[in-house]
Amino acid sequence: MNPANQRRPLLGRVWVLPLVIALGAAIAVAIIKSQPVMEHQAKPQPPTPARAVELQRHDVRPSVIGFGSVTPDVLLDMRAEIAGKVSYVHPQLKKGVILPADTLVIEIDDSDYRLALKKATATLAQNRANLAEQQLALKDAEQDLQLAKQKLQLAETELVRFEKLLTRGSVAKSSVDNQRSAVLQTQQEVQTLQNQLDVMPHTTEVLEAQIEIAEAEVQTQQLNLQRTQIRLPFNARIAGLSVEANQFVGQGASLFSAQTINKVLINAQFPLAKIRFLARGFDLKPNEMKALFDSGEDPSGLLQRLGLSARVRLAGDELPVSWNGKVERFSSNLDPVSRTVGVIIGVEDPYQQIQPGIKPPLIDGMYMEVELQGRPQPYWVVPRDALHEGELYLTGPQQQLHRMAVSGFAQQQMLLLDPNTAIAAETRVITSDLFPAVDGMPLALSPDPDTQALMQDWLEAH
User: What molecular functions are annotated in GO for this chain (predicted)?
Assistant: First the structure.
């Protein structure tokens, strides 16, 4: 019989397949139980090499950067105070030229004003003569009144005598009447003279007033004569010219514009958040500030107490040149476009610090970078390169990594952290890149002399 035909009945039986499966499972269990128990042995993780610098507090003068354009401290728009023909224009009265103070730059024809002054002087002399004549007339009237009163006294005495003689029949009644008429005439004369004396003080006041008017007219014409000569009130740089020689100008017409050169102003714009950062060092309480404003004192004292100073540089200039600035005042409102705060910075004598090819004068329209520094304050100082997506990698005496989310204020290559930030003692900042950076991972620390030197140089400069 064929062997293949013999196997088919055996495999076709139902109980054979479960028996084979059960036998295999029993053998597998026996093998597993015969194996020794596996134990997990922890393998120590090697520390990750890292460079670090020590984290310390330092007194730092925080600074913020703003930008603004130069404007002159005084921009003079000189206008004609009188009307007339321009008879002289200074040959150097041109845009951009610097001229010293008291330079005669424009002269207006003064012929009409000399005649007006001569007329006013003559009128004044006439009024003074009239006053002198009035004073003499007053003295004469006083003497005439005195004589008339004496004459009246004599006439009244004579009338009394005639009346006594009439009672005795020694004189005629007509003689008494004549004497009484003489008394009345003398009384009328006295009254007329008295009226003249009463009026004369008022006439004198009128003449004195006319003299004052004439004197004022003389002074006006003298001023008009002076106004024919236009001189520079200060050392100035000419910004524009509006007239020419032989041109007629009316009163109030623009002649030229000039700028002061002893001082310039810069309206530097700073973000409001940065100004708040500097305000932490303001040595002034709210009630003290209100008292200063209510007293009306000079605000320069207030600005000094704020402890602000400024350094001015040309925006985008790589040369290390700068100017010392002074905080003059704060702008009255926020910029409507950028929503920034304006701080007015003054720079004294910008034309006396010129270095040809290196340090130019500060002229109108220059775009400047202004560094505004506040009062020294304590901060944690860390390199900005040590910040990883808003986190610092720190380590303590155990040399294990601790990731800490921080928010600070960037200052050039450094980051200033609030001194109240919860940082333990003997903490170091990791300055090298770690990947992966897992909390608690061991570190093998080594100093970072380059970063430490960079921090030291920055701290000395601030």
Answer: efflux transmembrane transporter activity
